[in-house]
Amino acid sequence: MARAQTAHESTDDLNELLESLGRLLTSRQVFTGLAELARVDVSQQGMQIMRALNRNGKQPVATLARHAMMDIAAVSRQLRLLEAQGLVKRQTDASDGRVAVISLTAAGSRAVKRMLAVQHRQLDKSLAGWSPAQRRQLVANLDRLCADLRTVGQQPAKAG
Q: pLDDT per residue over 60-103, tens digit each?
């Protein structure tokens, strides 16, 4: 008869699975394979920036850095490369002539859409054996977990 897991053991298992998922989702090797399938010649960080622009539209560099979850210096370096490739452009904000806003070019938008299409196909293949109800439950549970982790991350740590 199988022994019941303690709460600590199940938390350890969950943490290990989340770490494994995080490594898989941020793997350079996995990203390179997906980028090749999508015919996109962009770094992983560059795609992170382009996806943030695709989701949120044009925005100042500081806002873009926050949406891409990167520091401003890294975003600035990547923007120079993306601009040179014709994937993003800088414009002066109409409401504040001192602020530059970044947006995707038509080529950048097409590249992001190709990458997303490949990622969606791969995810659909991975979840092929899941029922629609199981997929909805996974989304709901992950959404709740992310919200809870953000909440806990904003609270001061208590001495244990």
A: 999 999 999 999 999 999 999 999 999 999 988 777 666 789 99
pLDDT at residue number 9: 74
- The identity of residue 2, as a single letter, is A
Q: Is residue 114 part of a domain?
A: yes
Asked whether residue 13 is domain-assigned, the answer is no
Whether residue 2 is contained in a domain is answered as: no
* Tens digits of residue pLDDT in 25-73: 889 999 999 999 999 999 999 999 999 999 999 999 999 999 999 999 9
Q: 135: domain CATH number?
A: 1.10.10.10
Structural domain boundaries, residue 126: 20-151
Structural domains in the chain (count): 1
Q: Under a CB-based contact definition with an 8 Å cutoff, are residues 115 and 34 in contact?
A: yes
